[in-house]
Design goal:
Chain B: InterPro entries: ATPase_P-typ_cyto_dom_N, ATPase_P-typ_P_site, ATPase_P-typ_TM_dom_sf, ATPase_P-typ_transduc_dom_A_sf, HAD-like_sf, HAD_sf, P-type_ATPase_IV, P-type_ATPase_N. The structure holds 2 protein chains of 2 kinds. Chain A is an alpha+beta fold. In chain A, 27% of the residues lie in helices and 15% in strands. In chain A, helix 2 packs antiparallel against helix 10. Chain B contains 53 helices and 36 strands. In chain B, the strands form 7 sheets. A 10-stranded mixed beta sheet of chain B has the order 14-33-32-31-15-27-30-29-28-36, with helices on both faces. In chain B, 56% of the residues are buried. The chains are: A alpha+beta, B alpha+beta.
Amino acid sequence: MFPPGEEPPKDGPPGEAGLEKKTKEPANKRITQQTLPACKPVLEPVWVVFIFLAIGVVLVPIGAVCLYYGLKPVELSVRYDQVCVPGGNNRARESYIIQNAADDANLTCTMTLEVSDDMPAPVYVYYELNGVYQNHRRYVKSRSDMQLAGETSGLATNLCDPQEYLNGNNSLLINPCGLIAWSFFNDTYEVLRVPNGSGPAANLSISDTGIAFSSDVKYRFANYTPENFNPTLDSNRGGANLTAASGGATPQENERFMNWMRVAALPRFRKLWGIIHTDLKAGDKLNITIYNRYNTYSFDGQKSFVLGTTTWLGGKNPFLGIAYLVTGGLSFVLAVVYMVLRLYKPRKFGDPAALSFNRPAAPS
Amino acid sequence: MGKLRDKLRKAGKGHSDEQEKRVININTGHHDRHYAGNETSTTKYSVWTFLPKALFEQYRRVANIYFTIVAALSLTPYSPVRAWTTWTPLIIVLGVAMLKEGIEDYKRYKLDKEINNRQVQVLDPEQSEYVEKSWKDVKVGDIVVVTKDQQFPADLLFLTSETEEGTCYIETMNLDGETNLKIKKAPDETKDLSQLDLIKFREATIECEGPNARLYQFTGNMLLDGKTLPISPAAILLRGCNLRNTAKAVGAVIYAGHETKIFKNAAPAPSKRSHLERIVDKIIFFMFGLLFAFCLVTSIYFSQWTKNKSLQNWYLDPTDTEKEYSPDNPGFVWFASFITAFILYGYLIPISLYVSMELVKIAQSMGFINKDRDMYHAETDTPALARTSNLNEELGMVNTILSDKTGTLTRNVMEFFKCSIAGVAYGAGITEIEKANALRKGTVLDDRERPEAVKWRERFFNFYDERLMGDAWFTAKDPETVEMFFRLLAVCHTVIPDGPTNPEEIKYEAESPDEAALVVAAKCFGFFFFKRTNTTVTVRENTARGVNDVEYEVLNVLEFNSTRKRMSVIIKEKSSDKLLLFTKGADTVIYERLDPGYAPNAAMKESTSRHMEDFGAAGLRTLCLSYAELDKDWYNNTWQPEWVAAKTSLQDRDVKVSEVSEKIEKNLRLLGCTAIEDKLQDGVPECIRTLAMAGIRIWVLTGDKMETAINIAFACSLLTEAMHQFTISVYGVKAVEDAEEAGDKELAERLAHEAVGKSIATIKAAMEDKDERHQFAIVIDGKALSYALSKDLNQDFLAVGLRCKAVVCCRVSPLQKAQVTTLVRNHGDTTLAIGDGANDVGMIQSAHIGVGISGQEGMQAVMSADFAIAQFRFLTTLLLVHGRYSYKRISRMVLFFFYKNMLFGTTIFVFNGFNAFSGQFIYNDFYMTLFNVVFTALTPVVIGIFDRDVDKQMGLKYPGLYMQGQRNEYFNFKAIALWLLSSMYQCAIIMVFVLVGCNSTEVDRESGNPYTMWQTGVLMYTVVVITVHMQVCQVLDQWTWVHHLSIWLSQIVWFLYLIVYGYFPLFFSSDLYHLFTNIVAPSPQFWWYCLLVPCACQLPDFFFRMTKKQISPEDHHVVQEIQKKLKRAGKDVVSEAGQSPVYQQPPSVLAAIFGEQTTKNTGFVPPYDPRSKFYGLVSSGARATGKIETGARNPVLTHLDQELTDNPYRGKKKSALPALSPKGASGSKAGPSASGSSLPPVSEGPANGASPTGAGAMGVAGVPSSAASLLAGPTKVGTLPPVNGAGKPPGRLPPMGPPPSGLSGGDTMPSNNSDAPAPTSIPMAPASGSASLAPSSSLRNRLPPLQQANNPALQALTAPAPGAIASPSTDSRLAPPENANAQEQEILATYANAIKPTKH
């Protein structure tokens, strides 16, 4: 058990028990004598190569699988902010939507998408925004989780400022308060499916339930009627009220609102808007009616309508698979480079002559 | 800060020094309230002051100030984080540090309490009897009784003791570290007071100076019965001293508590910062720079963005904003954003670094250094002690060790070993030095102990000679002289006997162990000294006339000091009424004073001095003994009055006393000499060899004579024959001596200065073109050193000194020790000073690391040291194990800290770039805060405590590993840069993988939801945590359960935190609420990224490390492999490494270069190098032999060879030549050129070329230390016989190695020594250069004088100038530094105590 010289201290003769105690001799403990049993991995070149290969062997197949499933989903995307609104530039488009803010008909536009591959249900409907800084510090902190969760008394909503009180009136506490809620995305979509591109068009129902995280529905958003919340549409901007039409009249009902409230990490983001529980076939034509209300023109933002399917690994995204393949491949390459270097400059394992203080004539 | 405090402290001290004199009424029961009570406290804090003071201490660290600023800023609205998330870690960090302070202080408090509650007997004036009181209740003016072995509770005026003379003995160890007893004497007027008298003793008043720190001074008077009596310092008993050998002592308290001298002297423990910590500061500054850069980028970008872009982003409601987001006020936006960024990027600065470092260092010192069994000395029951934990890592970077000799390299246990009486050498022992040298030569001396010698052996006495032991000496040669010799040993000393008066049990209390050894020797020879009174000494003498108790009246004691170098007693034998003067002292001073008219002197001088030479060469400490019969009338009428006058004079007393002493110490009759062995400590040579292999230069600073120092240096492997040895000395420089003789001190000094300068220049030139393989050594004496340390030479001296493997400074003063240390230290070398005595304190304090030898003499050195070990040899463990480990551990830990914080901080910065630098972070502020204090806190600490690259035995087996620390390979710019670089690219990989792969347009689950910010944040944080820990896994060398625990636990805790905190109420957990369990964990991508990203981060690092290890492995890599191989071969590393002496393995550098032959240790010299100047001296014939030349001959070897042939008791010849007298033997071997009789007293011979080898060595040795010679004046030199060249008997020349075939100039003679078949001798050329190139010394001996003179080194120094003796000069450039300025004088005075003679 103990290496030589490491036995625990022997007890002195019985008579000296008293003396034994007085001595300042340090106890023989492995921890203080720095002889804790240890695993000392010293990698021989063969092991190094093995490790590189092993990493490669593990990563590459994973990469292949991930790539397969990353490419499998089908994704259709159409940018509509430019084409939906008349005007040569964003300034003109902005003034157009402001002028027609009250008239949905004038803000409606229709686009056509052709389904390139079969899209089995569920087909997810997203909107993609680009150039919206949902991760701006002022924006991120401007919310009240407690208020959203239904708390009404003892709230500290000061973080919601500047959207804490309606029009700065201290008696009109906005609920849900804050910039995030205030700027709730309010474009809406309707989709008509034309099977095989020529058949009779049928309205595809887009479900707005089951699109938010279950925990959000359960815990974070309460079932209450908003107060002082976007009472009138500000024509300068978007910002929907919570109504049945926009997905639900209360925060807990409105899953689109929940998704909006989960801010995105980057200024280009997608949010789940609805689910189509119908299989789409390749060659189907989709006529999309867009109610283009949300003002992204002032800051030159972009809006897209996106349809996508998923696999167990998520949506269409080859990055993970490629990253695995590249890393695994690199590991193989490094194994080879290492072997070449080793051949080029071989060294005996554990050779005392390799010690710098044993090497002759250290010129310095 | 510290400086300010010191100033304040000093100011406070100064104030109290100036305090008005105090008047003390003794024993009245009334106490002056102005005088401090005796309650003492050494605590730093009280309950009330703890918080403010301890906090203040914490803010001496810049980082803490920074974090407090950050915390304060986090209270402002511009903070991106919640305020408590910055306050919590700050409070934890400060709290831990303060808790540590508090615990330490509490320990001090408990100790104080114990001391304050010690009991002492105090005379109660009311009840007129003694009552027990606690120390703390003792007041100024109280009369206290201290019993034997008790400590004095306060500074006392000694009133009376139970002895007739009113004396007592005290031990001052706690005060000044001296172990010998000192006598204190009560004033005559009070010494006879009985207890009863004392009770009435109320009239007395003491008037004295205020409390001060001067230990050895006291001015005060006692007013008694209307008389004013002066009180001498001899009547003052100081707190901290112990009463010894005296049953009781009664004293009146004059200073109590904090006003006692010991408290006035209390110096704070040295506060030194390690090299590494200073680099840490620099990195922190770099990080600050980076932080500011980040902040600038952030704030400028953001203010511009806000100004130009924010108005368009209506969703930010830019028109209704606070000032900090207002587009109209970019200046303020910039400012606010800067503050925000400043808080945000605070993660670049590792907040817990300092506290972790502190923890780690405490663990290292308390857990490992103090507990190391390898540094536990069982004999003295002393474990190692780290007095500070600040310097652990510094121990791993030591370049230069400066060591004291006596008591540090040696045991300071003196044994009477040999002697020479009436020209006959006695004693058969073989010293370790001789053994070591013989071993080096390949011969083995027969040092079996003879059975008959055993019974004589005792402490201090290790001597056997059948001609002297028992009654044998009655019939020895010249028994009268022998008898006188023994009598002198028994009488001429200041030893105090103690204990039962029988030879077996008696104990001697001596000022120095040497004295004790001499008295014990006398006892063993049958002159048993057992009683001393103030005026008499009684000796039980066993002579041919039988055993008699003889009482000698001691009339005078002429005390030893380092100037006089001798001590004398004048005695009157009661029976015979004869007056005798006994003198013992250094050979030089005694020889000067021998009676030229006394015939036996002439006969004995030569042989005695040769014996002394032999003894010295064997590393023994010699003392010359002599006596004189005094003319009674002259003594009584002339000398005694003068003596009394001198003794009582008030001015220049010391000078006058020594002048008067001079008058009586003359016309001496030589008796012989003694030789005392101060044995090397166990394992010193091995230790030094190991240290040398670890690339550590060793400077030995000793008060010894040059030749003794050199011999010891050879014996302890400090000097080896493979070294080119240079000697710098001003003794024997003819021009200087001429100048001295002529009395022109300034000229002599200037010449000496020049000579030293030239020596150094010569050495420099000789070193210039040599590569590292050439090992050099310098031997320099104190006087030359004083010039070498002068402003214009010290840099050169340093340059050559640092090129040397070993430097031996002889005859140095404590001040010089400190000066040399400072010189080396200021060069940037990491210095470690090790010593045992009060004289080493200066050196210990000026070095980077001070090490005290504990468990022996006093505590002075230990108290001023940073580490205390019991034996010199423990240095190897301290440096090669603990130092090396600590250095690596702490560097690794610190680098890891910066790495992880840089990595983490940069992710925050990069992410900020994606949100217009608005100051938003992707993480949650709470776990962001916990990054440093929880999730990555344990692992670095574990690295700092438990990491070990190789097992400790391997560290000892391969001392060269230590050089990694010296080169600072782990913490240099490159290492730091590489770590930071890897943090940068790892950060890049993480950012790309996470922000591209998991960007917010990507869907990561079947249910179709894209990534959201907090989810991405958790993912990013998780990969950071895993990456950081994987990095640890990569750099770790050994995995113990602690490593596993910390690494896996830290990561598990992170996940646990995510889960548990997610279930906290929404108010606390906010964005983390149900995040992990419901959103993050169900996503398969999360887990795939957790596997992929750390792998991708570590892969390049792994490749780089492995390739580097393959292509150019570092030393520890190779040793790790060796260790692995050993283990694989089934050999236990521990036993393998542990059993083989460390110095045999691995093959030395030299062996690696030159093959196996060098390991034979037979006079090896590096190979011929044609560029070398001094190799130019070697005749071609010598080279043609193709054999390895015998280089620098160890002088000891030389003498040993002779000794072997001379001494009948030596080795194999012991039976063959029992009766042959050494003199005869030597005479018979005397060469043709100089006969034994023409030999001048060797010890007085000027050192020819001051060569330490051959005869020159003894010449130098005899010359007193610089201080002595400066004071001694020209008279002494005047008495020197003029000697040209080497006056040495050729027979004593070093026997050469293989005789150079082409060399025929010298006479050869047969030798019995197989190693030296043909010793060659040539008279040394007359050359008075003061530098000699040692390896050539034997070569030089083979050369014709002319060629010798061509030696540029010697030529350069042959300064033909008349002159006179050196003396202190006003020329500051030339003067030895100790005269340079007043401040140094002050220091000198501080060490005056240490200069006292105890060790000589």
